Structure formats: structure tokens, C-alpha cells
Amino acid sequence: MPAMLAARRSGNPTPVPTPRRLAAALLLGAAAGCGVTADPAPVLNAVMPSSGYNDTPLNLAMMGSNFRPSYRVDARTGNATLDPGGFHVWLTPISPNDGPAIELGNVVWQSVNLLAGQLPADAREGPYDVTVTDPRGRSWTKKRAFQSLGADGTGPVVRIVSPPSNTAFAVGALVPIVVTADDGVGTVTGLTAVMSSGSGALQPYTCPVTGDSTVNCSFKLPAPGAAGTPDELTIIVTATDAAGNIGDARAQFDLVRAPAFNSMSPTAGGTQGGTQVYIEGAGLSQRNVPVDVRFDGLPATIVGQGPNSLQVSTPEHVMPATVPVTITIAGVTVRKDAAFTYVAPPIVRNIVPTSGPVTGGFPVTVVGDNFVPQTTQIYFGDAPLRCPRYSSANRIDGIAPPGMGTLAVIADDSVSGSVATQTVPFPYYVQDAGWSPLDGGLDAGLDAGWSAGGGPDAALNGTGCPGAP
Fold it and tell me: Tell me: domain 43-148, CATH 2.60.40.10, correct?
């Protein structure tokens, strides 16, 4: 650089800097401070963690600003390479009687705001000032930035977060387990869990650890045990820290037998739900453990419960279908595919004629949907349609029973049930004295050899109806 200034004073042309000359100039400038802007001194704001035990080496992070690294420059090529190890960090005890200053090992530059280093083991207990020195020799000291706690004599605090207390599991159920271990400012080095039952069966699991002070671990283990014997399920979790201290936790739960699903009756019902279904099996009522029964994934209502049987009311289903049925007890689900058939219930939409005399005995045609032979019945109030004859899924003919006032006509099926809101009103009236041909009611009409256009001319149910043999 003096040569360049002399060249300018003499009026000679300034030489073009080659990479080698530029590198040399940078090195000389850095050494002499000539023409190079001075970087601000480093500032240390905090050390993390700010305290720790001294049983093992401890990784520390120095946070601050103006952590500017040095560079290695190749004078021949001019290439500059970052030197991340040009910083030094010292811990100086507050009391001189606590020993000499301790230099951190493996100090590495991370960014202009972060340095990393390792405090050797056996740092004497007490507070320390922390000093950071950059590659240019400039320093910054943070008073009482670190506290050595001495030897770690306390084990990690272990918690079994899940399952919650008062939970029961069936043999073979996958038990979801969540555990934590917290060693404060120490380091968790191991975390294991063992699940066992009274039968002696064990299920161990080792959680991964990463050298942190806390560990959170989630996993699932199958509940061990004899399939048909109620038992106790025990979970024991053990954690170890870097000093060899141990902490543990344990929890116990009811262990019940896995359910069995043998049969059910009836196997069909209406889409509107409410069909009473009886289920036979085993292990269906144990220690007040909740039972969940589902038809095609929809929850049924438990009406009655015994050790080997259930009575449930079916849920509503949006459309006719044959669906699976599942029973879940204490984490174990048993399933039967194509176990129950939902059938659309019959619905009355119209009646011809739309009214009739109180004596009954006249032919009617009931029009609707989902009529089924042998199982669908038509009712005028509480009185069944007489001499019913199934014509199609949309039509049933028969003889109207006697009635008074206006009665609701409804279709009911022994399999699919009925829909109480789907009725058609039928008003009865008192006929004139000279009314015929069924004067005297149904019996008189039948004796007269009843026949009418559109009405039944043959009966399917019983005798005594028109056309019956």
C-alpha cells in the first residue's frame, strides 16, 4: 500500500492489482489497519443453557452479535476460505478461590449471532463470567452468564401421559402410550418402557433419545396376556440421565378378555332404525367396560347387556343395503361382514275410495311403496285390512274394516317396520238406510257373493273372503 501511495504522488500509473497482489494487500492491510474499515467488537448477550451439571461435558451456545469470523487467504490464488475456529470462549469463576478460568473446547462459528462450544466436565460449582474473544483479539465479557451446579444427583422426572387412568384394555389391543422424561438442565440418555400382565408376558420398547434434557415419546404396544382370563396390565417407564441417575413411573389398568361375536338375530330391519337385535358371543360385559356396536360404522344403542349377549337398537341407515356389524370392547374390534340387511319400510300414499261407510265391508285399493308379500300389513287405525291380497310392491287390495271418524291408514312390515309419519287419513261416514249391496256389514256382503271392479276377486289369507275356496 505505501508503494501505491508513492506511485500516486509521483504521477506514475497505479498498477493493476493481480489476485496475488490483492491477497497480499488484504493481508498487509488486515495486519496494519491501513485503509480497512474496523469491524465492531463482538457482543455476548446470553449463554444457553445458563446452568448445568458438571458430571459430563456440556454443549453451550453463545448468543450475541458481531461474531465475525476470520478467513484464510491463499496468497497465490487470492482465494479466501472461512475459518470457523478462530474464536475463543473462557469461563472465569467469580471467586478466584474457585480455580482457574476454563476454556471451552471445539468452539465453532455458526453465524454472526451464534457460537457453539463444549464445556469440559468437572467445572467447579458456582457462577462464572463468560468471555468471547474474536480472531482479531477483541473481547466481550458477560458477567455471571453461567452457573455450574456441580454433580447431578437427581434422576429424570418421568410421566405416563397416556393412557389415562381408569382405562381398560382387552388382550391383544394396541395400547397407545405417551411418555415424557425431563432431567431439568441435565441430559436424558435413555428411556425405556415395559408393558406386562399377570401371565408374565412382556412387551418392551426403547424410545429414541437425542441428548436433550427432555424426551417425548409416543408408541403402541399390543396388550399381552391370556385370551380368556381377566388380568391387570402394568406399564413401567424408566429414564436414565448422563450422570447415571434413574427416574421411573408406573401405571396399572384393567386387562379383560377379547370379545367374541358368534351370531345375531334378526338379520334384517328397516332403514328407519329401531330394530331390536340380539347378539350372542363372549366377553360382552366385563368390569363395566363400555361396549360399542356399529352397523356400517353407525353406532347402535345398547338396550340390554349380559356376559355373553347384547340387545341393541339399530341406527337409522340412509338407504337399503347389506352392511357389516362390529363390536368394540377395550380396544379390540370383532366384525361380521354382510351381517345385517337394511330394508326400506312400506309407505301408504293413497287409498281408493278415499272414504267409506262406518260398517266397513267395501273393497279398497291401497297404493304405496315397498310392499312385501306375507310380511306387509295395512291398518285402519288399529284394525287390519281384511282379506288382503298382494298385487305388487306398490298395491295391496282388500276389504275395509268397520270404523268411526277419520282413521290413519298405515303400512307395517314384520321385517322393516313402519314409518309413523307416513299415513293417509280415511274418513268414515254413516250410510243411508237403503245402502246396498253390502247392507249389514262385511258378513252380509261376503254372503252375497261380493264382487266389484278393481277389488279383490280372490283372497290369499284365510277363508271367508271373496273368492276363497
Answer: yes
Q: In the structure, what pLDDT confidence band is assigned to residue 464 with cuts at 50, 70 and 90?
A: low
Instruction: Give the fold, CATH level 3, of 347-447.
Output: Immunoglobulin-like (2.60.40)
Per-domain residue ranges of the chain: 2-32, 43-148, 157-256, 260-343, 347-447
Confidence class for position 229, pLDDT limits 50, 70, 90: low
d(CA 147, CA 124): 9
Cβ-contact 423, 348 below 8 angstroms? yes
**Whole-number Å distance between alpha carbons of 17 and 122:** 53
pLDDT at 3 over 80: no
Mean pLDDT over residues 96-109, rounded? 88
- Answer whether 202's CB lies under 8 Å from 235's CB: no
Q: What is the pTM of this model?
A: 0.64
